[in-house]
Q: What sequence folds into this?
């Protein structure tokens, strides 16, 4: 007998059980009204969203999520509904999935492998399950697992050994560059080893620093990808099994990495703005590459009518910066302001003249400029209820080449995990779709324009050298000796590492940004501020 | 045969294995030069400091810590040295303690209970040990455990069952109000249940949001505290056992709670400033109670010569605020500046006049004032290399009654975990030691002075009502219904909870502060910013 399965790539709202419950019911109702379906599968922790973090300690929240399961059981008794929820049993909490059928809980599975690395803290909240789960449904034996489980061959094999013909896995697997390919390869290999088809349903949507990419898929018992859903979009996909084989169906092509990165950033911005109820976004547009890319991303995420760009020139700002900023704002059709900052800079300079008498000019004066911009942008954000986007990139966040409460002021940092060289790649990629960033912005040397004729390369190694050093030090935990042995100059390595080590205090107060690497700043990299560790 | 044990309450520098190694060697050398000692015990993870966080993923760091153990073994072969370190074994890392004797590792213990709640993330890094550890030393059978272990009666009992006559436990147990009493009571009860004396050695010192209080102690086999060390200070204590009984010795009295809280804040400020290499501290002194207390704490931590206070009056600042600020600065002997902010406020008002034309006055204008103060204070901080202390308290942090990049600007937040009512208690306590805060500061109604005749009570429930609501909601995870059932007005509860739920984005960019409660903002309370959870 064939088995028709709907894979629901959904974007749950963290913490709002009632809203998520309503979405689930609506989805089920829509599906049954238009299709004949046997099974509907939702992602991990569907009812709460993922990750709910310390909301999981709230008794009212857990109670609501558990009660919702019983209400769901009667929505569509003729269909098998698979949803994820935090299951309270005695005083223990499990990351669980249930299959609901004919008004009852047919089976419950408790996640066995609780990730507690990277951005994950599941051992903070959950007890681990110890048993595979296989249930009989319409004559087929179906196994259930949750996310991290299927990254472990032994769990897949144990579920097969318990009698499964097909394995369903509910996921909230966050994106990073190349993650979809990594998933397909690894989980495909486990499917092949156990000779067990796997149906992989992933969440979608932005949640603070995480973006879930969807990209659900089905692998057959030979580990081949026989179905692939769209990435970064909510989607209901229907697949049909006959005798444990997937009936051939249309399938998305393999995702292109640069396009996935771009989509992740767009989705992350859109969801942050929408889910937090902002009336749009604003940003400081400097004429440099970072803010140019952020403007393009913001417009792609929110629409031009919801984005405002503000130039904030000082006496160090070159005319071409203003020209290019204005030009891009015009191309993209966003509201554009130009507010020179000299009056505020002069006011502070006068106010501090006595206190600073006899001292020499240093980064203090550069910071004052950046902070005057921060005050103006935050005032515009506050007045209109629009989110201020910061424009700094990962290279700058790494070495602290940014001003706290200045250019770092803002609620969300789209490029926080995008190194400078990737900023250029993404800008060129965006311009290939349609030219929105003036060419000169892509070719002129990067500058903070906080002092006369300033260039980033005055203070930092060239980004072609800096970015790979940072990736090795930050993402791969290599020591200075290892990086130097790989061919980088000791001077550049020492300088870069010293700057990274000394900038943790800035990062700790930085806006949340979208994770697209295997190690982003934020929950993913937990370093002490006070630290005697010296990488060099 | 008597056994002389030195309990070393030491303040390791996170991340600097070489510096910690040198401190350990120096301590051992000093002890052996002046005393006849059998055993010297250092706290948990002595060689790395606690918590090293993601430094534990760095291979060079782990290698250095493991190599140091072998070097330590030969420092004083005639003495037993017990130290904590992250032990690498194969590809597993353990939170371990070794006893070094006669140039060898006599025994190694691997922590069995890995805390992964509250501020702790040990399962992120460590594998758990599975065995008790008892070794024979000078004719006595001595058990070893580490911190969380002795909070579990079964581990104490298992160590006794393995033959221990005395249990040594190495700790890095962070302070919160009443923690020392809690430790003594619980661990005393486990000692009594297993009829096993416990020697408890704790770390001391501030590490970002944590303060370790020392307060080492010895409980006899009846669970009675027979020795108690000083709190919040590095100390070497010597105790002597004869036939498993402690020879009576002088002992610190039970610590007074308000005094412990005050000392925790002083120690936290001092260590943050010193360990991060600041040349002192500055703060904005408003004439209100919060900044008055922070000034007192800073002077007690750093000395008057290292602290500067800055008044930043606006047109809304009352004369008594300036008078009281100046008065306290004079009493405490700190450098005092007065920098009116009107010129900067006027500059921004003019710069934004066109953009804001037709809009009405709202919190935007209040925020501009607060941010002008932030710019001035940060400029003074940057110019001199002095740490800017923020002065906001926990009640304000809870409800978001603070301006991002304004009064929230700064590197360290001493009162971040101190609710408003406790701010008053601590101020009164400090004035009892010597009167430093003008009486009027303690008695006038709290005001942010950002609008004419503004009072906190215009926007917030009275602190006598607000603070207990916040404690129930934030620290005890009570729901609105539960708090209302406890007798609080639905209006006050609803308002407070809505403000807490909506302020996570501010807290996420706030300065690190000192944890003195059982749940502080920071690593201790991990909430999503984007959240549909509504406590009401």
A:
């Amino acid at each position: 007998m064939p088995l028709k399965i709907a894979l629901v790539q959904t974007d749950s709202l963290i913490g709002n059980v009632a809203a998520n419950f309503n979405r689930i019911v609506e989805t089920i109702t829509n599906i049954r009204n238009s299709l004949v379906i046997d099974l509907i599968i939702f992602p991990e922790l569907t009812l709460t969203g993922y990750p709910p973090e310390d909301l999981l300690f709230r008794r009212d929240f857990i109670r609501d999520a558990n009660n919702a399961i019983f209400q769901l059981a009667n929505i569509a008794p003729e269909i098998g509904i698979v949803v994820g929820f935090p299951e309270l049993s005695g005083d223990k909490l499990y990351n669980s999935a249930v299959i609901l059928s004919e008004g009852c809980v047919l089976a419950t599975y408790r996640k066995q492998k609780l990730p507690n690395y990277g951005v994950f803290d599941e051992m903070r909240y959950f007890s681990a399950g110890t048993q595979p789960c296989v249930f009989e449904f319409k004559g087929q034996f179906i196994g259930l697992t949750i996310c991290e489980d299927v990254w472990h061959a032994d769990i897949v094999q144990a579920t097969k050994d318990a009698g499964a013909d097909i394995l369903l896995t509910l996921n909230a697997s966050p994106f990073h560059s190349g993650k979809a390919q990594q998933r397909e390869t690894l989980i495909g290999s486990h499917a092949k080893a156990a000779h067990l088809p796997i149906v992989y349903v992933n969440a979608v949507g932005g949640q603070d620093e995480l973006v879930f990419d969807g990209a659900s898929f089905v692998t057959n018992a030979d580990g081949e990808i026989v179905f692939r859903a769209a990435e970064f979009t909510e989607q209901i996909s229907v697949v049909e099994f006959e005798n444990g084989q997937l009936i051939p169906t249309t399938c998305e092509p393999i995702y292109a990495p640069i396009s996935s990165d771009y989509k992740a950033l767009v989705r992350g911005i859109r969801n942050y703005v929408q889910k937090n109820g902002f009336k749009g976004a604003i940003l400081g547009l400097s004429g440099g590459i970072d803010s140019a890319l952020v403007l393009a991303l913001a417009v792609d995420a929110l629409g031009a009518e919801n984005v405002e760009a503000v130039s904030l020139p000082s006496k160090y700002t070159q005319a071409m910066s203003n020209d290019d900023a204005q030009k891009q704002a015009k191309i993209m059709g966003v509201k554009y302001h130009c507010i020179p900052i000299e009056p505020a800079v002069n006011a502070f300079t006068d106010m501090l003249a006595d206190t600073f008498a006899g001292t020499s000019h240093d980064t203090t004066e550069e910071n004052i400029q950046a902070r005057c911009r921060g005050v103006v942008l935050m005032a515009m954000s506050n007045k209109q209820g629009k989110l201020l986007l910061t424009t700094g990139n990962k290279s700058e966040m790494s070495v602290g080449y940014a001003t706290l409460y200045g250019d770092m002021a803002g609620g969300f940092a789209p490029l926080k995990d995008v190194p400078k060289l990737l900023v250029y790649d993404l800008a060129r990629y965006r311009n290939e779709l349609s030219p929105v960033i003036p060419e000169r912005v892509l070719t002129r040397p990067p500058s903070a324009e906080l002092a006369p004729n300033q260039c980033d390369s005055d203070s930092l190694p060239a980004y072609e050298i800096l970015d790979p050093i940072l990736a090795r030090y930050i993402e791969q935990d290599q020591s200075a000796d290892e990086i130097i042995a790989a061919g980088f100059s000791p001077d550049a390595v020492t300088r870069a590492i010293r700057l990274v080590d000394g900038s943790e205090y800035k990062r700790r107060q930085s806006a949340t940004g979208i994770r697209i690497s295997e190690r982003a700043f934020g929950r993913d990299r937990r370093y002490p501020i006070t630290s005697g560790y010296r990488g060099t």
Q: What stands out?
A: Chain B has two domains: 2-255, 261-460+502-508. Chain B touches chain A through 83 residues (CB under 8 Å).
